[in-house]
Amino acid sequence: MSANVYNVESLLVGKMYYSNSVKGEIISAEKNDDVWYSGADTYKVQIRPVNSFDFKDTYRYVAVKVGD
C-alpha cells in the first residue's frame, strides 16, 4: 500500500480565496520568505478574481502552520 504524497503548493492551487478586498481562485503558489509569520511557512499566492470588473490577477501572502 502506498500513500499519496502532496506538497503545500499543490494543495493551495485550485482553492478559493476570500478576503474583504478580493474573492477568487488561487492559480499559483510558491514558498516565500519575504514575509515572516511565527510558527508558519509563508506562501505567495496568485489569485484570479471572479465576478469582478477588474480581471487583473492579484497576489497575497498566506501563512501555513508547520509542525504541531
What best-fitting shape do the alpha-carbon axes yield? globular
Can you tell me the number of structural domains? Answer: 1
Beta-strand residue percentage: 35-45%
How much helix, percentage-wise, in residues? Answer: under 10%
CATH architecture: Roll
Structural class: mainly beta
User: How many β strands by DSSP?
Assistant: 4
- Poorly predicted runs are none
Main sheet strand line-up: 1-2-3-4
| Major β-sheet profile | 4 strands, antiparallel
Give the averaged pLDDT, no decimals. Answer: 89
Instruction: Write the H/E string, N to C.
Output: HEEEE
> What is the tally of helical segments?
1
Key traits:
68 residues; mainly beta; SH3 type barrels; 4-stranded antiparallel beta sheet; 7% helix
Question: Please, could you describe this protein's structure?
Answer:
Helix content is about 5%, strand content about 45%. With about 70 residues, it is mainly β. It has one domain: Roll (SH3 type barrels). It has a four-stranded antiparallel β-sheet with strand order 1-2-3-4. The longest helix is centred in the N-terminal third of the chain and has 5 residues, at about 10. It starts with 7 loop residues before the first helix and ends with a strand. The relative contact order is 0.25.
Quick recap:
This protein has one helix at residues 8-12; strands spanning 16-18, 23-31, 40-49, 58-65.
How does the SSE layout of this entry go?
Elements: H1 8-12, E1 16-18, E2 23-31, E3 40-49, E4 58-65
